[in-house]
Write a structure and sequence with these properties.
Blueprint lengths: L12 H5 L12 E9 L3 H12 L4 E4 L15 E2 L7 H20 L1 H11 L11 E5 L2 H16 L5 E3 L1 H8 L6 E5 L3 E2 L2 H14 L3 E3 L6 E3 L6 E5 L2 E10 L17 E10 L4 H4 L8 E4 L6 E4 L5 E5 L13 H10 L8 E11 L6 E3 L5 E5 L5 H16 L11 E2 L10 H4 L6 H9 L1
Parallel strand pairs: 1-2, 1-11, 2-8, 4-13, 11-18, 17-19
Antiparallel strand pairs: 3-7, 4-6, 5-6, 9-10, 10-11, 12-15, 12-16, 13-14, 14-15, 17-18
Helix pairs in contact: 2-7, 2-10, 4-10
The structure holds flavin-adenine dinucleotide (FAD).
Length: 430
C-alpha cells in the first residue's frame, strides 16, 4: 500500500487561536469495530461522540487533520433552523416536517449544552443569531418568518430599522429577526474538542487516514481500507460533505461543493468596537449571495461571504468583503485585515440536509447548505439514534435516496458573478 500525504489546514486565524490539535496517529493496523465513520468534520465527530456515549464501539477515519474540511474553517455561526422556512418544511414533509422544525431550531441549544457537558474550549458564546433584511422584498420575507416563529412559540424578536441600527451599528438593515438561541464558536476549537470528547467516551480516531476502498468481506458488514491499514465494521457512516470523493458511488454528484470565504481584521480598538455589532451575536443577510459576520472574543471582525471557487489564503483575496464591511461601518477604513481563507460547503438543490441509508448498514449525511455547525452536530446525534435501533418513523429528519445531479460537472462554470443559487442548483439537478 502506498503512503498517503495528509494535508493540513491552510494557515489561518483559527489555526492561531484554537486550542492546539492533539497528536493523533494514522491507522497503521487492522481494526475491528461496530461502526466505522469516514470524515473528521462535525458530522463524523458528532456521530462518533454520540455513538461512543451509547457504548457503541466506533473508529473514525479522517483523511487529513481533524476539522480539515468546512468544520475547521467556517464562520463559527451556530444558527437555528433549516434553510427553508418552517411553513415550507411542513408543507414539504407534513407530519415529519412538524418534527424537523423543532429539531432544527433546538440544534444550537443542544450544541451549547454539549460544549458545556464536555468542557470544550471553543470560545462558545450564545449571544443570538440575527437574520437581516437589506431590501423591501427580504423584509417581507423576514416579517413572514417572524409570524411563523410566533405561531410555533419559537422565541425571536423582530427589530425595526432603528432597533437594527442599535443592534449592529450600521443603518444598512430594514429589519432584523433576532433569535437568542444562536451564537458562535471557534469552529476549529469546536471540532478538536469534539474529537477529544469522542475519544474520552471510547472512540478511536485516526487522522491522515483516507478511506480509499470499501468492500464487503461477508454478506453484511464492511471493510474500509486506508493506505496503511483497514477497519472491519458492522456499519458504515460517511460524513464528507463538500469534500466528498468517489468512495460511495454517486454521492459526490448529489452536492455542489461551493466555496465560501472569510476575512478577519486585527483586534479592533474599543472606540471602533463600540459601533460594530454592539448588541453582540452573529448576523447573516438574507438574499441569494449571503454575507455573514461576527466579532470574536478578541474583538476581531470576521466577515464571510462570496469567494473565488478555488483555494485562497490571505486577506488580499477578499477585498470585496472588506470594502463591503467599510460601507457598513465607515470607521473601519484603514483598519488592518490580517487573515483570509476559504473552504467548501455542501449545497443541495432542495436546500435540505440529506441523510441517506442506501443499504441497511450504511448512513451518509451531508448537504447542510451553510448551516452545518448546529445541524451537523444534531445529525450526529440522529445517526447514533438510528444505529442504536430507532425506527425511521420516529427520526426527526427524512431518510432519502441519493439523487445525483445530471449536470453536476457544470457547476464550476456557472459560479462566476452573482447568481441565484437556488435557480442554478435546480438546473444542475434536472
Ligand atoms: C467558509 C465557510 C463558512 C461557513 N460558515 C458557516 C457558519 O457560520 N455556520 C454554519 O452553520 N455553517 C457554516 N459553514 C458550513 C459548515 O462548516 C458545514 O456545513 C459543516 O462544517 C459540515 O461538516 P461535515 O463534517 O459534514 O463536513 P466537513 O467539515 O467538510 O468534513 C468533511 C471531512 O471529510 C474528510 N474526508 C473526505 N473524504 C474522505 C475520505 N475518503 N476518507 C477520510 N476522510 C475524508 C475531509 O478531509 C474533511 O475533513 C461554512 C462553510 C464554509 C466553507
Amino acid at each position: 500500500m502506498s503512503a498517503h500525504r495528509a494535508q493540513t489546514l491552510p494557515p489561518g486565524l483559527y489555526a492561531e487561536t484554537a486550542v492546539p490539535a492533539i497528536g493523533l496517529p494514522p491507522l497503521e493496523t487492522e481494526l475491528r469495530t461496530s461502526v466505522v465513520v469516514v470524515g473528521g468534520g462535525i458530522t463524523g465527530l458528532s456521530s462518533a461522540l454520540h455513538l461512543a456515549e451509547r457504548g457503541i464501539d466506533v473508529v473514525l477515519l479522517e483523511a487529513n487533520e481533524i476539522g480539515f474540511g468546512a468544520s475547521g474553517r467556517n464562520g463559527g455561526h451556530v444558527n437555528p433552523g433549516l434553510k427553508p422556512d418552517p411553513d415550507e418544511v411542513e408543507h414539504d414533509f407534513g407530519e415529519l416536517g412538524r418534527r424537523m422544525v423543532p429539531f432544527s431550531y433546538a440544534a444550537p441549544e443542544a450544541l451549547f449544552r454539549l460544549v458545556e457537558r464536555h468542557q470544550i474550549r471553543c470560545e462558545a458564546r450564545q449571544a443570538g443569531t440575527l437574520r437581516a433584511a437589506t431590501t423591501a422584498k427580504t423584509l417581507v420575507g423576514l416579517q413572514n418568518l417572524a409570524a411563523q416563529h410566533a405561531a410555533r412559540g419559537i422565541t425571536a424578536t423582530l427589530l425595526d430599522a432603528s432597533a437594527s441600527v442599535a443592534a449592529t451599528g450600521t443603518n444598512r438593515y430594514l429589519g432584523i429577526l433576532r433569535d437568542p438561541s444562536g451564537g458562535s464558536v471557534n469552529p476549529l476549537g469546536y471540532a478538536r474538542g469534539l474529537a477529544q470528547a469522542a475519544m474520552a467516551a471510547g472512540a478511536r480516531v485516526h487522522v491522515g487516514s483516507p478511506a480509499v476502498k470499501l468492500s464487503r468481506p461477508q454478506a453484511s458488514g464492511w471493510r474500509v481500507e486506508t493506505p496503511s491499514g483497514a477497519v472491519t465494521a458492522d456499519r458504515l457512516v460517511i460524513g464528507t460533505n463538500g469534500y466528498t470523493d468517489d468512495l460511495w458511488p454517486s454521492l459526490k454528484r448529489s452536492v455542489v461543493p461551493l466555496w465560501s470565504g472569510i476575512t478577519a481584521t486585527a483586534p479592533l480598538p474599543d472606540a471602533i468596537l463600540r459601533d460594530v455589532m454592539p448588541g453582540g451575536g452573529v448576523l447573516y443577510e438574507l438574499g441569494s449571495i449571503t454575507v455573514y459576520y461576527r466579532v470574536d472574543l478578541a474583538g476581531r471582525l470576521l466577515m464571510g461571504g462570496r469567494s473565488a471557487q478555488h483555494a485562497v489564503t490571505g486577506p488580499d483575496g477578499f477585498r470585496f468583503l472588506q470594502s463591503y464591511a467599510c460601507k457598513l461601518w465607515p470607521a473601519l477604513a484603514g483598519v488592518a485585515w490580517t487573515h483570509g481563507w476559504n473552504g467548501q460547503l455542501g449545497m443541495t438543490p432542495d436546500h435540505y440536509p440529506h441523510l441517506h441509508e442506501p443499504e441497511p448498514d450504511v448512513l451518509l449525511a451531508l448537504g447542510y447548505n451553510g448551516r452545518g455547525v448546529a445541524m451537523a452536530t444534531a445529525m450526529g446525534g440522529l445517526i447514533a439514534r438510528r444505529i442504536g435501533g430507532e425506527p425511521v418513523e420516529t427520526l426527526d429528519m427524512p431518510i432519502t435516496d441519493i439523487k445525483p445531479m445530471p449536470f453536476h460537472g457544470f457547476w464550476p462554470l456557472a459560479v462566476n458573478g452573482r447568481i441565484a443559487w437556488g435557480r442554478l442548483l435546480d438546473r444542475l439537478a434536472r
